[in-house]
Design goal:
The complex is a heterodimer. By secondary structure, chain A is mostly helical. Chain A has 16 helices and two strands. In chain A, about 75% of the residues lie in helices and about 0% in strands. Chain A has a two-stranded antiparallel ribbon. In chain B, helix 2 runs antiparallel to helix 3 and helix 10 crosses helix 11. The N and C termini of chain B lie far apart (about 40 Å). A two-stranded antiparallel sheet of chain B has the order 1-2. Chain B is built from eleven helices and two strands, in the order H-H-H-H-E-E-H-H-H-H-H-H-H. The radius of gyration of chain B is 19 Å and the shape is globular. Chain B is mostly helical. The chains are: A mainly alpha, B mainly alpha. Chains A and B meet through helix 4, helix 10, helix 12, helix 13 and helix 14 of A and helix 3, helix 4, helix 7, helix 8 and helix 9 of B.
Chain lengths: ~350, ~280
Amino acid sequence: MAYLIFSLSLLLIYVGLALALHIQFGMLGVANFGVVGFWGVGMYTMGIFQAQLDMSFVDALFLVLIISLAVSWLMGWLVLRLDPQATLCATIAFAAIVALLIVTEKWATLGVVGLGTIRYPFRIGDGTEYLYFGFLVAIVVGLQVLVLRLHKSPTGKLLQAIRDNEELCASLGKNTFQVKMFWFVLASVVMCLLGALSAPLNQFLTPNMIVPSVTFAVWIALVLGGKEHSLGAVIGVFVTFGIFDILIETYAPVSPEFAVVVPNMKLFLYGLLLMAVLIYRPTGLLAPTTPPEHVWGEIQKASKAAVGGVAAFSKEARDRIVQPKTAPFAEPKVQTEDGSQNDSDPTGQESKS
Amino acid sequence: MSFFIDSIFIGVLQASPLILAAMGFTLIYYLNGFINFGYGEGITFGAYFASLLNVSFGLSFYVSIIPAAMMTGGLSVLTYLYVFRPAIQRGVKPAELIILSVGLSFVLRYGLILFVGAENVFLDEPPIAFFTFAGTGATSLQFIALILVFTFAFNLYWLIYHTGFGEKVRGLADNPDLAQVSGIDPHRVSIYVWFIAGTAAGLAGIFQGVFALVHPLMGWNLILITVMVSIIGGVGSVRGALIAAVVAGILTAAITLITKPLYAEVALLSAFIVILWRRGPRTA
């Protein structure tokens, strides 16, 4: 049970990260591939202040906030004027720098030895983990409400307009750089603070937590759920982390001799599901235009498509290879115009066959 | 003086897998316009194909280089035909294609682990002779690797910038519609390009594997730096990728000779960010 609470708390952290990335990438179009960098900055500064300097949780959190503001602002200043590929490259580099500095700066982080122990902000006997879990639930629900409200507000429309055509927005008199900066820094600070909040969960910090797989996990969850839909982040994290890391890991009935194979098998199936969903649902599980009341129906449709997709995957590709005369570059152009309407048709056919 | 020769030699040698990988990666990025993280698995599979021929079938290492690289090229074409082309035809956008390629990468990597296991594999190296050249020592293997890498790199360069085929590739990348109207078959050109890129990845994996060891995560560990170098080199510029990879290798080697290797990486990555920032926005 204690393990389950730990996993669920981690799931909430991932939901928070995916929501922050939804603001940055889904709404603002900033391809931040350095999620783990911001997360790691928050986690390790929290660890250093608490374990090395023996501060209280609240003091440490306040200092983490200031440092993460500075780091986020610096990164925003460096990357926000760049084109998407360059942003992606610079943020990957940023995350790699953070991971390397954690290993090299042994005087602060203790390097590969690891840093511990990070305490919970309160201690009430056996209930501590549960209360902390409740605290995380409140934070993530708050973030989700913020995102839902943002989607309805004029600011949200402004962010989407900047994503789709920044020059046009600027010509209408909006200070696009300032708007981008504000929301990028806000979302990055959220990532840092989530890192700081996940430090007590892990209690003992090691550099091998700051790996690109965290970034990929968040990106996968967001894109799989639907990067432009306000509920895409939550759905995505529940499908990826929830099913694969909690349900299968904890409850799959496996005989001991296969236990070694399970993690590899799991990641293999995970990759297969990812491919099937994206090929048969090009916009992710939730299309940008899905109204909130249809979310559940869309998920059912998408899961049928994914199951049918895995089965039809090889067959479909074999059929295609037989007729190579079709022009592969002519069609996407047509579909990009009305991709969101079109993509449900192949889905329906696949699930029937 | 020997400092410069050492940095250039060590840098180019260490960067040789990166040079090949970055050039091949750029080619796909240029033609199809998305970042293919699955490309890293080409590196892994190249090394494993070489170990299959070299260790399991007992062929000489030098004999197994070319077939292993060609097999990787074939694998790359298969991923294009079975995964990426259907996806592009269905209208999957570049951001989703990135995640699709990550999914493919998971399938290939963990499929490989399920199939052959996660243990390290060592390639059977041929007997090694030691040479001294301009004050720097090198083994015969290193020399042959360098010669092969540069033969491949310059052939690829010549192919892209000085032949009719290269013109077709560049035409398709710049304006697919115009290229098709001019009678270029995008399907055939794409297959060739994915084959060449896969071959480059396979060669990169073989050299990475013979200098160190072969393990299932080797491609994944190399892919991020490959992506960064390709973007620094300029989107879709094979020339830029070549230059950026060589410069990155030499710089890393030079800084490593002065300070710790990890600080060399930090300095290089910071330089990446500053270069991108100085360059500002640019359209591809």
